[in-house]
Amino acid sequence: MQDRVLWLLQQYDRPLGAYQLAQKLTAASGYPHHPNSVYRVLQNLMLEGRVLPVATTNGWLAKRLAGPAPVFVLLCKECGNALQLPATDLEDDLVGSLAARRFLPRQVYLEVLGRCRSCDAHRSADIESDWLTDPAF
């Protein structure tokens, strides 16, 4: 089941929750998959470094970057897509700052909410279109 859950997550550029995954697995196989069993699989995949939890959406992403370094997850609040970026430089600064405060991090998750380039371009085009066609201007 781990391979099926991981494969399914790899098909999406947005986080999926355990309930969504269970529904998709059930639809694909015809057999019921319970969110609790999917959640256990996700926990194991996380421990193996193959998926990332996304707290903002209560979902999960397939990890697309190799290595154990922390990853920035950039979440678009408009379309829901997520982009993963390496956070190696930030990790050094963060760990150094935390060490100075005698705090040892066990896991680091970095999520940034905003608007992706595609949604920003659509929004800019919509605003420009409205401005050009609005009789008040």
What this model shows, in words?
- Helices cover about 45% and strands about 20% of the residues.
- It is an alpha+beta fold and about 140 residues long.
- It has one domain: Ferric-uptake regulator, C-terminal dimerisarion domain (Dna Ligase, domain 1, 2-Layer Sandwich), CATH 3.30.1490.190.
- A hairpin with a 4-residue loop joins strand 1 and strand 2.
- Helix 2 packs across helix 3.
> Considering the protein shown, what is the CATH homologous superfamily?
Ferric-uptake regulator, C-terminal dimerisarion domain
Poorly predicted regions: 128-132
* Number of H/I helices: 5
CATH topology: Dna Ligase, domain 1
List the helices and strands in order: HHHEEEEHEH
Look at the structure and give the mean pLDDT: 86
